[in-house]
Design brief:
Elements lengths: L12 E3 L5 E2 L2 E7 L7 E8 L4 E2 L2 E2 L4 E13 L6 E4 L3 E4 L6 E4 L5 E8 L10 E2 L1
Antiparallel strand pairs: 1-3, 2-5, 3-4, 4-11, 6-12, 7-8, 7-9, 7-10, 7-11
Length: 126
């Protein structure tokens, strides 16, 4: 087995599905799961006020904010804002949403376990 390099843009991108996201969202696949790596990663770019639907991740998810502001919320808690360099750690099966604020676009790298039927990058709508 050898080390490999996936070139930027090589795996493609797509517009966020309106069944999963509100507003203008672009998802670029950065890397996929492999026999030795049980998670994939993507860059998710949100226009101002664009957000994901409420959803969960069976194996959890880690978000690394790369630009702007990312708003995230869990039921029963206040919404919080993460900025460039912040990491949002969402444990398995915790219902939440995330996206840009109404004043700033935002982007994050999503690292998600590849498991079961998925929407987007490992999301299960609820």
């Amino acid at each position: 087995m050898a080390q490999t390099i996936t070139k930027s843009g090589e795996l493609g991108s797509f517009k966020g599905d309106s069944a999963i996201f509100s507003g203008d969202v672009k998802v670029s696949i950065l890397f996929k799961s492999e026999s030795w790596r049980s998670f994939g990663g993507g860059l998710v770019e949100f226009s101002k006020n664009a957000r994901s639907a409420w959803h969960t991740h069976p194996a959890g998810q880690t978000l690394i904010v790369t630009e702007g502001e990312i708003l995230t919320k869990v039921p029963g808690q206040r919404a919080t804002i993460a900025t460039k360099g912040d990491v949002i750690s969402c444990p398995p099966n915790v219902r939440h949403f995330h996206g840009a604020t109404d004043t700033s676009k935002g982007s994050h790298i999503a690292i998600t376990q590849e498991r079961g039927q998925e929407c987007g990058l490992g999301e299960s709508r609820q």
